[in-house]
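retry 2 of 3: previous attempt timed out while embedding adenosine-5'-triphosphate. Reduced batch size to 1 and resubmitted. Inputs unchanged:
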Amino acid sequence: MNMPREEETGERADAPYGENRRKGRLSEMAGRRKGGEMLEVSDLTKKYGKNLAADHIGFTVPDGRIGILLGPNGAGKSTVIKSIAGLLRYKGTIRIQGRDAVSLEAKRRFAYVPELPYMYDALTVREHLEFITRAYGVDAAEEEVRRLLGRFELTDKQDKLGNELSKGMMQKVSICCALITKPEVILLDEPMVGLDPAAIRELKEVILERRADGCTILISTHMLEMVKELWDVTFVMDRGRIVGTYPREAVADEDLEALYFSVTGQENGKDGR
Ligand code: ATP
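retry 2 succeeded.
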C-alpha cells in the first residue's frame, strides 16, 4: 500500500482535507512536464551487506507507458521498486518527471503497491481508503470509491477490519488505495501474486485504463504470462543487473520469452547458468 509518510501528511497540513488538489491533474500533465521522461533510473546501486542486489541499474519508462521489470527470483526487482518508492537507501539517481524521487513533489506523484500488502488492524477497508485520500489531499467522490470497491469485489468487505482480511483481499485493498490517490506514476511489485482470476483481469483492465489516461506504470514480475497484454517496454533483470531492454515495437511476446531465457540463462532449467 502507498502509505503516507509523516512528513507528507505534515506538508499537506496547509490544505484542507478533501480539497481536490489533484483534480484534473492527469489532463494537465502534458502542460506541466518540465523535460525528462516520467520515470528515470540511473546508476542505481544497492548493497545488502556484501550482496550487490542492484548493480548500476539504468532505465527509463517514457511518459504514459507501461514498463515491466522481468526477472527470476532474487534478480533485484523489488530492490529497484523499493528504491524508487523511497524505502531504501541507495546510490544513484532516480527522477520522476525530472524531480529527484526523494522530494515531496515527486512522492506526491506516485503510488506504490508492495509485494506484501500492509494493513492497519484497526481500520476497516473503507477507512483505509478514507485515510489514504485524506493523507494525500485527494478528493475521491463516493461514487468513485464505491465503483473501485465493486470492481475488486470488496463491496461486502468494506466494513471488515484490516486483520480480518485474507491475503488476496489485502492485496486488493492495497491496489485500491494506490488507485484512489490518482497517481501519475504507479509502481506495482508482483501485483498479480495472490489475486484470483477475476481480480487479475480487473487489475489488467485498470492498468490499461490508467495508461490511456496518461499514467506511467512500472510492474515487477517473474511471470511474463501475466503481463503479456500490458507491456510497452520490458527490462529483463538478472543478478542485480539489467541484461536486456526490449521495446514492444521491436519485440513480439514469443521473441521476448526466448530472449528472456537466453539472457537469464534459465533455459537449461534448474540452475543451468
Ligand atoms: P523475487 O522475484 O523473489 O521477489 P526480486 O527480483 O524482487 O525477487 P529482491 O527481493 O530485490 O529480488 O532481492 C535481490 C537480492 O537482494 C536477493 O539476493 C535477496 O536475497 C537480497 N535481499 C533482498 N532484500 C534483502 C534484505 N532486506 N536484506 C538482505 N538481503 C536482501
